[in-house]
Design goal:
The structure is a single chain. It contains six helices and four strands, in the order ααααβαβββα. By secondary structure, it is an alpha+beta fold. It folds into two domains: 5-66; 78-155, 3-Layer(aba) Sandwich (Glutaredoxin). A four-stranded mixed beta sheet has the order 2-1-3-4, covered by helices on one side. Helix 3 packs across helix 4. The radius of gyration is 18 Å and the shape is elongated. The two termini are 16 Å apart. Bound molecules: FE2/S2 (inorganic) cluster. FE2/S2 (inorganic) cluster binds at residues 83, 85-88, 124-125, 127-128, 131, 133.
Amino acid sequence: MPTPEATIDSAQIGRIISSHTDLEGPLLPILHALQDAFGFVPSQAHAPIAEALNITRAELHGVISFYHDFQTAPQGRHVLKICRAEACQSVGGKALAEKTLAKLGLDWHGTTPNGAVTIEPVYCLGLCACAPAVMIGDKVIGRVDDTRMDSIISEAGA
Ligand code: FES
């Protein structure tokens, strides 16, 4: 369960950073530890990380945005990933994604107001033969149509 942004403990951020600074290449372990602790990499950690590792905030942003697994905001209880790669796009994945986003009133990376579902793009789930594919939690689902998507998001509580 992600920590709400307003309740982020800066002392905990400091402890996480200082417990990794002796490592060789400490940045990724620090980012992973922050994400494990809070469910995402809080913006409050950026300045202390940059200072501790003697890097610029731009360098830090570059690393966080390069690795798609790092989240920069609290996520919903369920993360619904919709495949945007070619095989899925060519058999209705694009329309499925657009309808889902419109139905939930979200943009990519958005979370429903009740905190139930966050929508993320993904680029191939290895289920191209059963496109269009989505993933909810750790479950991959193929041949998703509007009806199936409705039940996925309703089961997730959106
Ligand atoms: S392209 Fe969507 S699962 Fe491979």
